[in-house]
Design a protein that fits this description.
Blueprint: H1 6-10, H2 18-32, H3 41-57, H4 60-69, E1 104-108, E2 114-119, H5 124-134, E3 154-158, E4 164-165, E5 168-169, E6 177-183, H6 185-190, E7 192-199, E8 207-214, E9 223-226, E10 242-248, E11 255-257, E12 260-268, H7 269-274, E13 276-282, E14 285-291, E15 300-303, E16 320-327, H8 334-358
Length: about 350
């Protein structure tokens, strides 16, 4: 099959920089990797094609040669060493046919049961990133001391992910699971327990019941990590975690900002004028607040320690800030209106007298 232009293979323009080239390859490699498309020969061929294109375009020297001479720069006899990559190409046994990769080898038997990946002299950091992205970073450990990631070692796969690096078994942590739980405003403030019913991550259809403690002081949208409650690991590796997002329902009249709570208190007009007391609701019960004489609407009263407990130190609490709102009298009797008019006249005379004294 005739080769396609490397830029066309990756779906990028000829002026693409290294970042764009890598991004395009990562996306396509994840899509067409044989382990993501078992038994799909067309995907295998595409994976071979895009990897070959990336191997050339990600190397500045190879890219310059390709831009100047095209495929001819890498044909047998083109410069010392023949085909670029010194014959380390791509070998197949009933799977792929041979073709130059320049440092990347892939072996597969006719039944698709054994695969071997070699990263011999390519960009190990790139390959490690790319395959980490494909497999969800499920492979851990380092290869030789010369490089990170796969480090020139070979990864063997047989009957799943049962191989390893350098002859060692590749244990891998299972992937994380995500779920959500809803709690009330008070439950988030004081903590609570929840019983969750989750499908068994092993896929056997069973349902497991899990008791979860929601810690006091947790905020809306925060997550609780339950270690080992995710999907099972590979080859004896540890299970993943369960990330439980907490949704806190609102409480009328209460607003939370960090560890502090904000509320309002409506007081009669006369209490604001003459002073007095007002009952204020808190998470810890009602309290009586003293209202100073001449209190103005919008004044804030601070109730120390009536806020949310700290998740780091249970001895520390936020505060509650109460905004005073003055109630305007409605549906007054004729007698009450008359008294208010007399009060208004007295206020006007008092104001004029003060102005005269000031002059």
């Amino acid at each position: 099959m005739a080769k396609r232009d490397y830029y066309e293979v990756l779906g990028i323009g000829k002026n693409a920089d290294a970042k764009e080239i890598k991004k395009a390859y990562r996306k396509l490699a994840k899509k067409y990797h044989p382990d993501m498309n078992p038994g799909d020969k067309n995907a295998e061929q595409k994976f071979k094609e895009i990897t070959e294109a990336y191997n050339i375009l990600s190397d500045d020297e190879k890219k310059k040669l390709y831009d100047q001479y095209g495929f001819a720069a890498f044909e047998e006899g083109a410069g010392a060493g023949g085909a670029y990559g010194g014959g380390q190409g791509f070998h197949g046994q009933g799977g792929f046919d041979g073709s130059g990769f320049g440092g990347f080898n892939f072996h597969q038997d006719g039944n698709g049961g054994y695969r071997e990946y070699h990263f011999e002299n390519g960009n190990m950091d790139d390959m490690g990133d790319i395959f980490g992205d494909i497999f969800g970073n499920m492979f851990h450990g380092k290869g030789s001391s010369q490089s990170s990631g796969f480090g020139g070692q070979s990864f063997h796969r047989q009957s799943g992910f049962g191989g390893g690096f350098g002859g060692r078994s590749a244990q891998a942590k299972g992937s994380d699971l995500r779920s959500e739980v809803s709690v009330s405003f008070e439950e988030a403030a004081f903590g609570c327990d929840r019983m969750l019913r989750l499908s068994d991550p092993s896929g056997n259809g069973a349902v497991q019941t899990l008791k979860v403690h929601v810690p006091a002081g947790i905020e809306d949208g925060k997550s609780i990590r339950l270690k080992g409650k995710g999907n099972p690991g590979f080859n004896g590796g540890p299970a993943g975690d369960l990330l439980l997002k907490v949704n806190v329902t609102s409480k009328p009249g209460f607003e939370r900002k960090g560890m502090d709570i904000y509320t309002t208190a409506n007081i009669p007009f006369t209490t604001a004028v003459f002073g007095g007391e007002a009952k204020v609701s808190t998470l810890y019960g009602d309290v009586i607040c003293k209202i100073p004489e001449g209190t103005q609407s919008g004044r804030k009263i601070r109730l120390r320690g009536k806020g949310i407990v700290s998740m780091k130190d249970s001895a520390i609490h936020g505060d509650q800030y109460v905004t005073v709102q003055i109630q305007v009298p409605q549906n007054l009797s004729p007698e009450a209106k008359e008294k208010l008019r007399e009060f208004q006249q007295v206020l006007c005379k008092d104001t004029q007298r003060k102005r005269g004294s000031a002059a």
